Amino acid sequence: MQANHWSEIAERIRQQLEERHQAREEALQACRKAVQLCARAIRSLHRREFDACRALLSEAHQQILHARARLMPYPMLYHAGFLQDAEKEYVEGEALYAIVLGNALPEPEELGVEITAYLNGMAEAASECRRYVLDLLRAGELTHAETLLRVMDEIYDELITFDYPDALTLGLRRTCDALRAVLERTRADLTVTMTQKQLEASLENAIGSLAKAGQE
Question: InterPro entries from the xrefs (predicted)?
Answer without folding.
Answer: Translin_fam, Translin_sf
